């Protein structure tokens, strides 16, 4: 790997540009008819600008989009020092000159790291990392427990990324306290090939280890699509909420899970259309309205969200690659509401509350009857962390082909074609039913092999399917009537009470995956 360093002067900028050009087109020296003059003119500032401008013009003349990215960024990524500054200047000049900046599709494999410092008094470190492309899209890794040589081998596919983009990675140590410890960071350009980067600490910029990754680059498959489109793999985290379990004194059958699933291509289907909070809905007014009362409600809900979505070393993690992976998520396991031993490995007939969040384009959901919803003004606001808008929200439930009413419990789940029924049943955000076709297409894009049915909350077909699901759970799976809606047993401390206490005490936590009342009468929206 080259060790050339740039100190930010015109001379060194000129040298780097010449080096980059030599790597881009070794045959350039034989081309004389259109080749721009690359000699540095007098005047340091002007010379640097002219050199960079000539460099971009030269690329436009001699390089195709693919060649520009493949060769130029390979050279930049192998340089050290302030090459990020050079890339930033390249981007700025490209925009200034209105040049046609090429876009590419990236597949980034985060391999692992070594030489990390010991961070914990007992043990070594629990590292994870946060990666960003130009602060436009973010990837959060899993936590590797008690190791200074973590191996992740995690993939990140992003479509339509500018060829001059930068990848910024911050390495952290998961802590049991409210704040995680900072290990270090690095930035590289997104040229193709294997990468080895030094992790730079905060104090004196000392090296805190080495990080390995690999980047594959391809021409854009959907050049007219928006930039920075997440394209998989579909990852999910399952939060068992151990803190919530301890705080609310609930037993094993009521240790409910929350899921966060990173689904592909949300902007491809929703574009810039989002669903703001419903100003005609009283519960939403109490959350998002002005005044200290609403501020207190929001603070309590946000504290509850942090507890529900806390990132811990005990979180579940997985990748959705085939339909059976989705089915496994929907099994009635020991740590889910109303589960019984005989039904642990069967699809659970249950209704889920969901939101598709804007900030990270994640699909967040939990059982609608989960006890942690008790006393919160809105289930959907809890999942959405009180964001004023979401891409979409509502409820969904699985069902066998033909519906639960005609299903026999003697039939193995593997012998059945499964369907997902999803709706816009959310009073807090009151999603536009005209976007239901887009929602259906989004889920079909992410979950091929499933029949997707998207119904408006007032559609009688939805009511029939949902009630059949609940009736089956009561009759055949041992679910109790009171478990269909959030409730607290006598003497049980609720999550909302604990969240309010946390807010009043000024305590907080920074451990979520970000940096989400019961069902009402039939026909009324879910909160």
UniProtKB/TrEMBL annotation:
GO terms for molecular function: calcium ion binding. Residues 86-203 form the C2 domain. Residues 496-510 have a biased composition (Polar residues). The keyword Metal-binding applies. It comes from the Eukaryota. It holds the Pfam family C2. InterPro entries: C2_dom, C2_domain_sf. The keyword Metal-binding applies. CDD domains: C2. PROSITE patterns: C2. GO terms for cellular component: membrane. Keywords: Calcium, Metal-binding. Residues 483-527 are annotated as: Disordered. SMART domains: C2 (SM00239). This is C2 domain-containing protein. It comes from Dentipellis fragilis.
């Amino acid at each position: 790997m080259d060790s050339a360093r740039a100190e930010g002067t015109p001379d060194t900028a000129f040298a780097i540009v010449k080096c980059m050009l030599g790597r881009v087109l070794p045959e350039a020296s034989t081309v004389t008819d259109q080749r721009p003059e690359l000699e540095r003119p007098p005047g340091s500032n002007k010379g640097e600008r002219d050199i960079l401008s000539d460099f971009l013009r030269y690329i436009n003349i001699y390089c195709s989009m693919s060649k520009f990215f493949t060769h130029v960024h390979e050279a930049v990524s192998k340089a050290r020092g302030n090459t990020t500054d050079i890339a930033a200047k390249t981007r700025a000049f490209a925009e200034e000159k209105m040049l046609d900046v090429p876009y590419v599709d990236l597949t980034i494999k985060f391999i692992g790291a070594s030489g990390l410092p010991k961070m914990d008094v007992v043990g070594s470190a629990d590292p994870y990392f946060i990666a960003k492309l130009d602060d436009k899209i973010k990837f959060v890794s899993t936590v590797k427990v008690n190791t200074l040589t973590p191996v992740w081998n995690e993939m990140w596919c992003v479509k339509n990324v500018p060829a001059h983009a930068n990848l910024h990675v911050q390495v952290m140590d998961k802590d049991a306290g409210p704040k995680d410890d900072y290990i270090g960071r690095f930035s590289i350009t997104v040229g193709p090939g294997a990468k080895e980067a030094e992790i730079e600490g905060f104090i004196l910029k000392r090296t805190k280890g080495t990080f390995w990754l690999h980047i594959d680059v391809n021409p854009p498959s959907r050049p007219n699509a928006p930039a920075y489109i997440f394209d998989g793999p579909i990852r999910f985290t399952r939060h068992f909420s151990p803190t919530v379990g301890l705080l609310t004194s609930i037993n094993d059958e009521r240790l409910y899970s929350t899921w966060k699933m990173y689904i592909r291509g949300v902007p491809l289907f929703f574009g810039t259309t989002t669903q703001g909070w419903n100003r005609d809905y009283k519960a939403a007014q109490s959350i998002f309205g002005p005044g200290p009362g609403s501020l207190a409600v929001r603070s309590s809900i946000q504290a509850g969200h942090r507890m529900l979505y806390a990132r811990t070393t005990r979180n579940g993690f997985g990748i959705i690659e085939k339909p059976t992976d989705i089915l496994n998520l929907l099994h009635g396991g020991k740590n889910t509401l109303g589960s019984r031993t005989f039904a642990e490995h069967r699809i659970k007939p249950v209704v889920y509350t969901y939101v598709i969040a804007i900030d990270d384009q994640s699909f967040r959901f939990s059982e609608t009857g989960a006890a942690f919803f008790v006393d919160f003004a809105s289930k959907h606001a809890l999942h959405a962390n009180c964001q004023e808008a979401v891409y979409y929200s509502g409820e969904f439930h699985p069902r066998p082909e033909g519906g639960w009413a005609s299903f026999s419990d003697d039939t193995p789940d593997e012998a059945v074609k499964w369907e997902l029924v999803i709706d816009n049943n959310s009073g807090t955000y009151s999603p536009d039913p005209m976007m239901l076709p887009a929602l259906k297409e989004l889920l079909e894009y992410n979950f091929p092999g499933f029949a997707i049915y998207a119904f408006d909350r007032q559609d009688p077909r939805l009511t029939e399917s949902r009630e059949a699901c609940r009736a089956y759970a009561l009759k055949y799976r041992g679910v109790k009537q009171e478990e269909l809606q959030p409730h607290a047993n006598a003497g049980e401390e609720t999550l909302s009470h604990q969240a309010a206490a946390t807010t009043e005490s000024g305590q907080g936590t920074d451990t979520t995956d970000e940096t989400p009342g019961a069902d009402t009468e039939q026909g009324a929206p879910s909160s």
